Task: structure prediction
Amino acid sequence: MEVFKGIPVSAGVVIGSVFVLDDARRRIPRRTIRADQVAREHQRLEEALLASITELEDIRDRAESELGTEAAKIFAFHLGVLRDPSLTKPIHERIEDELVTAEHAVSVEFSRVAQMFAGMTDASFQTKVDDVWDLDRRVLKHLIGEHMTELSKLDQRAIVVARDLTPSQAASFERDKVIGFATDAGGKTSHTAIVARALGIPAVVGLETLTERAPDSAEVIIDGDRGVVILNPDEETLEQHRTYIERMRQFRITLSEQATLPSVTKDGVEISLLGNIEFPEEAESVVENGGDGVGLFRTEFMYLTNPHEPTEDEQFEAYKTCLRLMDGKPLVVRTFDLGSDKQTQERSEIPERNPALGCRSIRYCLQNLPMFKRQLSAVLRASALGKVKVMFPLVTNPLELRQAKMVLEDVAEDLEEEGVEFDREVEVGIMVETPAAAVMASTFAREVQFFSIGTNDLVQYALAVDRTNERVANLYSAAHPAVHRLIKDVVRAGRRHNVPVSVCGEIAAEVEFTMLLLGLGLRSLSVTPSAIPAIKRVVRSVDIPQCERLARKVGSFDSERQVAALLRDETRTVIPEAFDGRSVD
Result:
């Protein structure tokens, strides 16, 4: 039995079988196979080599017809290498002798060949190194792609283990096949983690070495509450976790009874609890969990889970679905928040060096106006069917906001000319997710109808900590006093200008922060739908003066550890069942 400690990002505990999802862009870890699996690995290797050769022959033929014979000769070396027994035979031998996967054998042998060419004195051979790495990625793509397709054919509950996952990969998992995942990389509020919470599957990230140790089909426990992964657990450990899973199931049943109750504090203050969604169908979950509407529709997932940009009509149908499922409740549509870890850099001809500080969110939309206008047109058309609000992400200066509003107005005028119905009074708001926006909240409040504080990025930019980087995960903390001061400033600016303020970052879904957020003056929280009952339980168990006293006490601290400890202790007195009290060891 091996125990790995990482970062808990999606709550819950599950027991299942490992399914390793490799990435052809990285070196493949050494994983062993059983003797009876050797023949299958030989077959997989041959199929991958044949598929690569066929692919290259097609490219060569196309190059010859379009560019001429000389250009086509470039691919002669590639084809020759893949057909050369001096390369393919050692790969087969390595599978046979070392009992390793075809992926690992390919990775090791191509690395050996690349190093051999790099060490030659003749420059013409040295230039072949890049060609070898290209072939390496091509063959691995077929091996790993084939493995990925097997995920859809599983007849058992799978727990995906990977070096890292993109949000679109996570979003594409079939919920009845994948019951949890664990990654070597990642941080608490990476968008992959957010997708895991949306799917309602336990997840742990930042495990560093799990993919090197976890073989396919091994039994594993994912503990998304404590951030622990247990590989090959013994029977005593399995029984402990089965008991805990049942206890948490009973607790969730009691929480579900909160869904139909009003979200009101003990002293009669109404708190609006909204849901964050990535997919239209999730709107139903918001209603089932007692939510008052959708406070954040992360529309970029329509883009990330499609091979093409969603058309205006496809987007309109998505918004229409949300409104129908919510039956009159409001829908806040955030415009495409592409970039950072949500715009896969593989789609870019020149990947950005620092995408978190690059062309993302509203910047990306303003540089891609046709796409932006199509989305705004779909949103406005949907506004004729229900209460819809438009929210722009990562606005950092008033000029960006004014440009975005001008584009929205242009789209509205076009629809008017076409005679298309829409709500001319659609409310416009912004995400406050940078220190710049928080500091200038009073300025922005003169030009918008609402604020939504995105604490995921606000913490990242305020503390200068990459929220997807497991190496600095200990520095990423929403309990930091600087973050609370920024939130407090935004709430004050909103009150002065009569602009409603909500929080839609992940801390809103963490019960430890509920009392603090209420104490800072917030009366609207937008959270993962499944978290609504637990947050409502806290809301109904406290009064505002109690929360304000807590906020004042937190305001006197200068350490996030002090803050986190106090918030946990205070919340434990209100909802003790949410804290299992188990040791992480």
